[in-house]
Amino acid sequence: MTSVSDGPPTGTVTFLFTDVEGSTRLLQELGAGYDPVQRDHLRLMREAIAAGEGTEIGTEGDSFFAVFRTPTSALHAVVAAQRALAAHEWPHSRPLRVRMGIHTGEGRLEGGSYLGIAVNVAARIAAAGNGGQVLLSDATRALVQHDLPEGVRLRDLGTHRLKDIAHPQHLHDLVIEGLTADFPPVRTLEVPSNLPDQLTSFVGRERELAEVGRLLTSSRLVTLTGPGGSGKTRLSLQAASSVAGRFPDGIFFVELAAIEEPHLVPSVIATALGLKEEGPRPVLETLQSELRERTALLVLDNFEQLIAAAPVVASLLAAPKIRILVTSRTVLHVQGEQEFPVPPLEVPDPVALPPLDALSRNDAVALFVARAVAVDPSFSLGQDNARMVVEICARLDGLPLAIELAASRIRLLGPKGMLERLDHALPLLTGGARDLPARQRTLRGAIAWSDELLTTELRALFHRLAVFAGGFDVDAAQSVCDSDGELGIETLDGLQALLDNSLVRPRPGRLGDVRFEMLQTIREYGLERIEADGDAEAIGRRHAEYFLALADRAERELRGPHQEAYLDLLELEHDNLRAALTWAIHRGQAEPSLLLVWALWRFWHLRGHLSAGRRWATEALALPSAQGRTAARAKALGAAGGLAYWQTDAAVVRTAYEEALAIWRELKDEHGIAEATANLAFAYALDRNMPEAVSLFREARGMFATVGDVRGVADMLFALSVTDRLSGNLPSARSGAEEALRLHRQLDDRFGITGSTFALGRALFELGEVDSGRAQFLDGLEAAALMRDRTGMAIALDNLADLENAGGRPQRAMRLAGASESVKAAVGGEAPPAMVHLPDPREVARRLLSEAEIEASWADGRAMTLEEALAYAREPL
Question: In sequence order, which residues have a C-beta less than 8 Å from that of residue 837 and are 6 or more positions away?
Fold first, then answer.
């Protein structure tokens, strides 16, 4: 019942919240001219609320909060309000769009204010709408659907999650005859996305956004084409955001600018989706399988240098609910592709200028003004400079990047000086190769013009910085571009100047530092110029040497206390490391190629790049100049064997380790011989030749002791503990694992600690000390989780599953084993079963569970996220 007192209604009531879309921007634009707009808005809203016998509870700025005794009266009020707002002649000569949301629920007054969740739901529903749109909760819809005003119908928008509201809400909106009915998706929370945050506002492009949105409805593959700098990436990001409501399974941005090898495309896409390699299974098959049931949008950015991978894109469309949005300078030429050439921004006629308020809404002019204000807050568009700004935009053919570069000079030149400079630079702006598209020649000229504004020293720094792929920090810039100070400028000052000139841009580093990057088109220009400068070979060599040194430093730390930090560093610099490898391999430079493979292999193992790492190792070892019997080749063979070991490719492991051992013996390198002997022992273990493996493990232990390598001794104690357990000598297995663990802890070797913990836990468990064994497995799980060592986490889950089976808890065992299987598939490898040697958990569980129960629990485990699996494993028994 609703109260009928003279005060605000209570009981079951209908709440209305409204808000003017873009009011802050409008206030800034109109200034004092906004007052009459606001007065008219308030009057029209109050008239509609009063006509519906509603009670105005409060206003805040441009927002209304009102309450109605019945949902029907609220519905009539909002329809009347929207019609009045649409019909009104506004002082600023533009429509005023007001979003509205209504919800019916309990109205409980306390101290003059409404309390309860219903008020919050109504407010969140209103906030999710677009200007001119009326959203209704399902509760309100049920009460008004048979009593709609003439010319009004309901439209079902589906279920949505709203901010701070625990339960999803089924939303509807009103389609009011004669009024706008085509709205963007409502702004709710449910769409997973990795779309990068944009640090500058998106200006204009309303028609292009609408067209891309329409094409994504009718076509499953849409390619945005155009020259570099035409705004393809920004348009793709904005378009993806605007259609988020159509893709409940997510929108995923895949940045390809730093990738030059077409075969890497599936891996990069999989990484963006959070997928990992599944052992020997091709990544493309994993992608196709994972996408089969998803309703998702992939945004593939900067595809032009990877055009040979176009069939990969086409193959992903086998997933029936997937849409793909590509940005590329050229079309992909695959079936089902819909091209959308991104046009330049429309520029007004400089001869016949429109009024100033209309001019400020032009996309090209608005972009220039927005970017100019960002570098000079005192700049504004006025009668004194409007024609010059339009002329600048026209001279730059409306190309967004060219306009942004021009606007960044506003403090230096002003519009007048800029026009004069453009006059002198016209040959540059149109002087590109004749076989390039006209707009690309113009963009090339615009970048060249920006280049020419730099001092000789800054220009050289700019060109040299183009050698970096995927970004760089100040130290890298200094070391690679000006290591001996020949440029005559401070690198930090130079970077600041290049930032001011929009030739590099900052981005937060994943390790808390500040990094810099170039737009891809600017980087390509810089690479051309560094060739013309004659610096390409020297700077490329410095880049490779710098990242080889970084990788070598990291390799020495990957078995120490700073392992996590160095793994993260290698992940951050992976694009640069691949670029260094590419440079070295393409030039036949054997030593840096081989040493980079050696330095990176453990990172590739732990971070799920096993297959890619094996390809790099194969390429490096196949170089004609890499055939010498050198330490570098022996190290790379060790890396190749290690990568193959974790994918249980026994033939490759044995061949690589045997050759490495032969080389170290030829070189009479005692430590190398010890390392290779230990590796070969693991190869024999992988082949299940345990007697030979044990003999070599013991031999290697003695060698490590002779050369004073404590970690090597600890590793061999771990390995011998495992083989002792496999042969049934559990007391020896226990003592060996305890000593290995002691030494690894002494060294703070996280990787060694993890393995020794599992060896000790297994020995304890098989000796009947179940609780102690479980404690060791959980300790190992924590150590592996800290390193993000997925193979280590899988070993822990397998051991815990066996423990649960032995304890009569087969359903928990199946879930843990299923989760382990998922982790192994994600990393693309596993510890060889010959060394782990656990019983088949399914066979053990069949004593207590039916096949259906086993499969159900196993599936539950496979469906767990890694975090869920870890939490489940940690649960007390």
Answer: 725, 726
| Cα separation, 807 vs 407, whole angstroms | 71
Q: For 111, list phi and psi in degrees, rounded to 5.
A: 65, 30
Q: What is the Cβ-side half-sphere exposure of residue 628, based on CA atoms within 13 angstroms? A: 10
Q: Could you tell me which residues are beta bridge partners of residue 160?
A: 169
Is 443 a residue whose pLDDT tops 70?
A: no
CA distance 597 to 834: 27
Task: Write out the two tokens for 766.
Answer: 């098989």
Contact, 700 vs 674, CB < 8 A? Answer: yes
DSSP, collapsed to helix, strand or coil, labels residue 236 as helix
d(CA 365, CA 345): 9
Which among 714, 723, 701 is positioned nearest to 751, based on CA atoms? 714
Q: For residues 626 and 633, is the Cβ–Cβ distance under 8 A?
A: yes
Cα of 665 vs its chain's centroid, Å = 46
Output the six-digit token pair for 87.
Answer: 């019909």
Alpha helix positions (H), 482-535: 491-500, 520-533
277 φ, ψ (degrees, to nearest 5): -65, 150
Query: Is 469:439 a contact under the CB 8 Å cutoff?
Result: no
Helix boundaries (H) for 64-196: 71-87, 117-128, 138-144
Instruction: Give me the DSSP letters along 783-838.
Output: HHHHHT-HHHHHHHHHHHHHHHHHTT-HHHHHHHHHHHHHHHHHHT----HHHH--
Q: pLDDT tens digits, residue range 707-738?
A: 999 999 999 999 999 999 999 999 999 999 99
pLDDT at 350 over 50: yes
Res 585 pLDDT > 90: yes
pLDDT at 199 over 70: no
Placement of tokens 């219903």 in the chain: 118
Class of residue 232 by CB neighbours under 10 A (exposed 0-12, middle 13-18, buried 19+):
buried
Are the C-beta atoms of 210 and 291 separated by less than 8 Å?
A: no
Residue corresponding to tokens 């519906």: 52
Read off the pTM.
0.63
Amino acid at the residue 720: L
- Helices 750-766, 730-747: axis angle to 10 degrees equals 160
Q: Which of 819, 801, 799, 702 is nearest to 754 (CA)?
A: 799
Burial label for 662, CB within 10 Å (0-12, 13-18, 19+), is middle
Residue 502 confidence (pLDDT) above 80: no
Query: CA triplet 665, 666, 667: central angle to 5 degrees?
Result: 90
Task: Determine contact, residues 330/339, Cβ cutoff 8 Å.
Answer: no
- Secondary structure letter of residue 407 according to DSSP: H
Q: Which tops the pLDDT comparison, 551 or 244?
A: 551
Query: Quick count: other Cβ atoms within 10 Å of Cβ 374?
Result: 17
The partner residues of 31 in beta bridges, in order of sequence, read: none
* Nearest of 155, 208, 164 to residue 185 by alpha carbon: 155
Task: Let me know: does 820 contact 797? Beta carbons within 8 Å.
Answer: yes
Tell me how far apart the alpha carbons of residues 832 and 417 are, in angstroms, rounded to a whole number.
69
- Quick: pLDDT tens for 275-328: 766 566 688 887 887 788 788 899 999 888 888 899 999 999 988 989 999 998
